[in-house]
Q: What sequence folds into this?
């Protein structure tokens, strides 16, 4: 009799334990089914393609990248973003290529680069232009900081070599367009890429005809100081 009671108690305890485990498992499964939001957030923040501009390292030339969307809206340093397109950084040359560390030392980053990110697909014609905005004076501490290889100085008559790439990121990384040009004077504007996207984000046409898109406020005072 005692053995039967002990067996019944063990059986009851095991059954209760298994029921608790089952309920806990169902609880966590229900949480996963109700709240799959984190993965969706990653998808929403991805970029479809980027437009990247580079020019010589340690140059004091201020070159701007501009992109015009199919609806005519233009993104550049004056309007750095909207719901789809973002200028990641307005690089004005050597002046913004430095920072001061904790010890007060001037740290140099010689890369000159601007990137515009496109996070959504809009069907129609896109245009990417560059604009030689200015040649800025180099502070004395910047010049002395480059002991082995001093900065490249430009005045209004020294050309600046600029490269632009249009890179599609989804579904695979692919360079769609690349172009190099020599900017020969300040306020010069050049069309680097002009293309048409279909509703799926595929590049269906390249247009070789130049187009002005830079706002008049950025192109004013042409010839100033000549």
A:
């Amino acid at each position: 009799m005692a053995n039967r009671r002990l067996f019944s108690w063990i059986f009851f305890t095991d059954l209760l334990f298994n029921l608790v485990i089952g309920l806990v498992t169902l609880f966590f499964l229900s949480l996963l089914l109700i709240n799959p939001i984190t993965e969706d957030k990653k998808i929403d923040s991805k970029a479809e393609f980027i437009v990247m501009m580079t020019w010589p390292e340690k140059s004091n030339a201020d070159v701007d990248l501009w992109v015009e969307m199919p609806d005519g809206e233009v993104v550049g340093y004056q309007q750095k973003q909207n719901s789809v397109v973002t200028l990641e950084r307005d690089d004005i040359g050597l002046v913004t290529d430095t920072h001061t560390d904790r010890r007060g030392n001037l740290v140099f980053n010689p890369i000159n680069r601007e990137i515009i990110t496109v996070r959504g697909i809009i069907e129609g014609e896109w245009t990417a232009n560059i604009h030689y905005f200015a040649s800025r004076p180099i502070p004395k501490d910047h010049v002395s900081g480059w002991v082995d290889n001093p900065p490249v100085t430009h005045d209004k008559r020294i050309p600046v070599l600029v490269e632009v790439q249009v890179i599609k990121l989804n579904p695979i990384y692919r360079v769609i367009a690349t172009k190099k040009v020599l900017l020969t004077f300040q306020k010069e504007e050049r069309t680097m890429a002009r293309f048409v996207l279909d509703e799926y984000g595929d590049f269906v046409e390249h247009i070789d005809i130049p187009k002005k898109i830079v706002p008049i406020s950025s192109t004013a005072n042409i010839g100033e100081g000549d």
Observations:
- The first helix runs from residue 2 to 34.
- The longest strand covers residues 124-135.
- The chain has a mean pLDDT of 79.
